[in-house]
Amino acid sequence: MLDGxxxxxxxxxxxxxxxxxxxxxxxQGEGSPLHTAEEIMPxxxxxxxRWLHQVAxxxxxxxxxxxxxxxxxxxxxxxINMDRGFQAVLDKLPTVAGMDIGSILKTVGTxxxxxxxxxxxxxxxxxxxxxxxVNAGKHELYEADVVDMLEAALxxxxxxxxxxxGEKTMVDALSPALLAAKEAEAQHLGLSQxxxxxxxxxxxxMKSTIPLLATKGRASYLGERSIGHQDPGAxxxxxxxxxxxxxxx
Length: 249
Ligand code: ADP
Ligand code: MG
Hints:
This protein is mainly alpha-helical. It has one domain (41-248): Serine Threonine Protein Phosphatase 5, Tetratricopeptide repeat. Helix content is 63%, strand content 2%. The two termini are 20 Å apart. The model is unreliable at 1-33 (pLDDT under 50). The protein binds adenosine-5'-diphosphate (ADP) and magnesium ion (MG). Residues 70, 74-75, 77-78, 81, 118-120, 123, 157, 161-163, 169-171, 216-218, 231-234 line the site of adenosine-5'-diphosphate.
């Protein structure tokens, strides 16, 4: 999709030379390319598949950690749920190779909904379905597409789970991540920086859940005793975004 925002300059570095080159290309007017080939570094379908493959690896490696986090404030299954869901995604990846990014993400969503029993299954399932819907037909994602994807995912989770920031859920990692991505897009920092800033903001948001009182999901049953524990879903959200930055940044 080549709307105005998609065409925002994507810079490889912060050096003045790159910046000047981009600006002069922009002001050259009709008929002139807005970018040189090197400046355009979108997320491709191959990158998307590598990201999802690596998410499965990272969630498998963090299965015990996520389950331990879910032990004091839940039912000790978040790592098991996420690992089961993404192992099923891993099995599906060969069947979606060659498809557009929207179709790939939608397949992830339906796979998570059908394989993950806990609250996180329908929530992440909806997030990936919505992310797929806004990227329908696309084979490359630029900064604006990534922002749209994060926004759609977060809106899907909020619509499904009715959580708002501050309730000790995955929303506390994803909301600041979206905000950071929007700021990076507005500043034309480039895709790499956008992904890194979103991941760093998610990590901060994840840590911010520790002192919070849970008012949504299973952890809310504990009332005051939920205070002092890091939210498992916010943690898996950070892992998914960190893996995006690591594989596509
Ligand atoms: P369950 O709670 O059913 O055992 P999981 O353990 O897999 O499911 O997932 C728990 C995580 O789901 C929580 O740490 C929290 O981040 C997230 N969560 C639970 N309920 C909601 C909700 N209503 N909105 C957003 N996230 C939620
Ligand atoms: Mg649980």
